[in-house]
Amino acid sequence: MVSIASRFHRTVRALCLTDNILDDTFAYKEEVNKIFLNNEVLLGVYQNKPPGAPIMFTDIGIIYQYKLHYSRMNYSDFTSSIICMNSKLEASDVIITMKSGEKITLHVCGGNGKFRDVFEFGRFVSRVIEDQTKAINGVTIKKWTK
Fold this sequence. Notes:
Blueprint: H1 4-11, H2 29-35, E1 42-46, E2 55-58, E3 61-66, E4 69-74, E5 78-84, E6 93-98, E7 103-107, H3 117-136
Antiparallel strand pairs: 1-2, 2-3, 3-4, 5-6, 6-7
Helix pairs in contact: 1-3
């Protein structure tokens, strides 16, 4: 199975403007630090354009802002995802369905036209879900060698 860190690096890392938002200038530093689990590794932070809030990627899940507070969702709880759009030029949301049935909407406001960042986010989430499904079903992927 491909690791989350590798999946992140391949898909959304280029969109993340920083890998350390938890410095002293971050207004929600204490709140976010309480959400982090022991030994959780921050992979990167997407600095969303207004009106979106920063989205943090870790090796365990995604930390996002919801109603002025930060919350988390673990990759292991993802069941499906869709990109919500009227057209490619207007797409800005990834809707993730959790095992509990809850649907969480991440607003991803960067990029232009058909090169909007939401498409890379959607690809990352769908690949994570595919990897988990393969792991649950016992499917292993052989590496290609000459």
